[in-house]
Amino acid sequence: MRQNREANEVRPIHIIPNYMAHAEGSAWLEWGNNKVLATVTIENTLPPHLRNKKGHRGGWLNAEYALIPRSTEERVKRERMYSGGRTQEIQRLMGRAFRSIVDLSLFHNKTLTVDTDIIQADGGTRCASIVAGYAALFNAADKLINAGKLDEWPLRHELAAVSVGIVDDKQLVDLEYSEDMKADVDINVVATGDGKIIEVQGGSEGEPIDAEQYVQLIAQGLGGVNTILEAVRRDMAAAKAS
Question: Model's pTM, two decimal places?
């Protein structure tokens, strides 16, 4: 359980952009005890369902998520052939979130792939993957603009995600693993920097939750998103200034 952290307090966040030498964009994220590596790859192709599709003039974005074998207390088996149900669910959430903020009309006949690998997990890894992926997309956008490969900034919104929940009758923001495992309510809030909700995922793990308390949790999540984006802005600006 959390120690020396208020109910609305987000765990410390640190981001190192441009972490990988060969990727079009990348970021290393430390969020509490979570450690996530995110990369962006841009390829000159479209997925089969969009090739030669009448009226499609832009690009596409995919997202992939993986827990490395010892990111958790027990070894996680590598998903070599097929992604498991949880992985697919997270990847779809990530893809929807990233596509909602990237102007894909600027990436004609290109596919962006955001890969996130969880090096160490401690609750809220899907939210950490969204934040790390956003930082990597920001890094890619910055590099493309500076290299003269794009004339317009391709990110329409800032993006972050955070978990909220009820644990031992307390409403908490940013659940760590020990809290997540015993939460009566567990919700992930994905939103923009100006307070627009992209997706709310989750709900009661036991007894139903009343509408008023549900709305309170979402509001707390939006506050957490703002705090996270302050950390993202801080670290991205610091890296650029160095």
Answer: 0.95
